[in-house]
Amino acid sequence: MNTNLANAPTDVQTPLCVDLDGTLIRTDLLWESLIILLARNPFYVFLLPVWLIKGKAWLKRQLSSRVVLDTRSLPYCSELLEYLRDQRQGGRRLVLITASDRALAEAVAEHVGLFHEVIGSDGARNLKGPRKREFLIERFGEKGFDYAGNSWADVPVWRGCSRSIVVNASERVGKQAASVSTVERTFPRAGPGGIKTLRRAIRDHQCVKNFLIFLPLVTSHQVAHFAPLLNALLGFIAFSFCASSVYVLNDLVDLRNDRLHPTKRKRPLASGDLSIPQGLALLVVLMAAAVLTALRLPVPFLIVLGIYYSLTLAYSLSLKRRLLVDIFVLGGLYTIRVLAGSAATGIETSPWLLAFCLFFFLSLALVKRYTELRVLKDEHRSAISARGYIPADLPLLGSLGTSSGFLCVLVLALYVNSPQVIPLYRSPAVLWFLCPLILYWISRIWLMAYRGTMNDDPVLFAVRDRVSYLTVACGGAILAMATHNWRL
Questions:
Q1: What are the C-alpha distances in Å from 245 to residues 134, 156, 174, 194?
Q2: Cα 478 to Cα 486: distance, rounded to the nearest angstrom
Q3: Please, which residues bridge with residue 164 across strands?
């Protein structure tokens, strides 16, 4: 909600100069172009220091000449845009002035269609802070312009303007702006901020997947043994840190596609609730925590963790754009967690368990893609952005997913009837009740996906679904009865 802090009316004769990064848009084009370039070719990282030696303005020019910015998908400050439209209709002159490279600023201005003039860095001069103030005073005179900004770098500019407009700024920046100028209007920060934003960025609910690390411990009936249980717990923590860092990395690489997605555009990095530098710092901290925790575990666990990270990195940069390969990789990333549990505890993973996990998690990966495509079809879009699936693929994805889900139950049935089950269970026949239970859960998941009532992430759906909790409880009871020779 806009807050008017100056009672005097706006002077339409005074030009309104508007900052771009963090003000008109809730991101920074320098970091946006840097991420786009490195996602396309990571080896550009070796050229960045060379460009930076010639100055920040030169670095921005080199980046802008090598990237194509999708101005439609940027997270604009909608309330400020509405205000600017009103000002333009009232006859006020609007000037977009930014430290970003002029070429990128012009692309944004062309998309917005509100500004009479665009001023930006030109490869030699970086228009930020005092330099921006000097330029505006030279152009419009001392106190001859109003200025909309958001950060500490804008404080020098506010000192030289007639009135200030504070947008998406912290409380301290807002107070500083009020102390050096007359605040005409304030546009508060959008989004929850703080811990809630960090939790959304690391997707703490996804830690549920990492409980798969305990699966070898459970299926081998060694939960009561302290040493392997402690190792499994450390493995869970390390994998949670590692997986969260991967989620942040994936969100950084996939900013454009996430912003075009109906639900992913609300993610902290895509929406601008979390800045790109904050995201990079969070990624490094999470990865360091993962490595430090993993160092307390056997070397095979570190190897599996490295394979997981490498595979997810390849997925983020390339494999997620490969038809069907992306689905198999997603399913494989679940199964790797089981192998990580085996590596952490030293308990050998049964081939039966791996086969079951392979088909079960492939089915869940197909649910995810099916649901995403179903949502885009309902919104009359032709394909999942950058992934190549089209609405005509829905029947095939559904068929593959249900078949894979039923195959995992077949593997379970064969296991129950195998000699390997006898040493572990006193009443192995009771395990047969797991088959209809899992069949029911998989069938229900796919039925909801077909009806369009499934969340695009089946794991998140299961975490919030009472029936899923009841299914897990029943499965645990069946395993207990089979283990301890209880009778129905």
A1: 42, 37, 32, 18
A2: 9
A3: 147, 183
Environment class of 22 (CB within 10 Å of its CB; exposed 0-12, middle 13-18, buried 19+): buried
pLDDT number for residue 112: 95
* Structure token pair of residue 228: 């392997």
Q: Tens digits of per-residue pLDDT, 200-236?
A: 898 888 888 899 999 898 888 888 788 899 999 999 9
Give the model confidence (pLDDT) of 444-458 as tens digits.
999 999 988 887 678
Helix (H, G, I), strand (E, B) or coil at 221: coil
pLDDT band, residue 383 (cuts 50/70/90) = low
DSSP state of 212: G
* C-alpha distances out from residue 283 to 183, 228, 248, 286, Å: 37, 29, 6, 5
Q: Quick check: 371 and 340 in contact, CB under 8 A?
A: no
**Dihedral of CA 111/115/118/120: which sign?**
negative
Could you please report the per-residue DSSP string of 424-455? Answer: T-S-GGGGGGHHHHHHHHHHHHHHHHHHT-S-
Domains of the chain from N-terminus onward: 16-187 (3.40.50.1000), 194-349 (1.10.357.140)
Task: Give residue for tokens 């950060």.
Answer: 151
- The predicted-structure confidence for 64-120, as pLDDT tens digits, reads as follows 999 988 999 999 999 999 999 999 999 999 999 999 999 999 999 999 999 999 999
Residue found by looking up tokens 């005409």 in the block? 184
Comparing CA positions, the residue from 366, 483, 488 lying closest to residue 428 is 483
Assign residue 161 a region: left if phi > 0, alpha if psi is -120 to 50, beta otherwise? beta
The residues, any chain, with a CB within 8 Å of residue 166's CB and separated by 6 or more, are 148, 149, 150, 173, 174, 177, 183, 185, 186, 187
DSSP string for 264-325:
GGGSHHHHTSS-HHHHHHHHHHHHHHHHHHHTTS-HHHHHHHHHHHHHHHHHHHTGGGSTTH
**How many residues appear in the chain?**
488
Output the six-digit token pair for 194.
């703080």
Q: Read off the DSSP letter of residue 466.
A: H
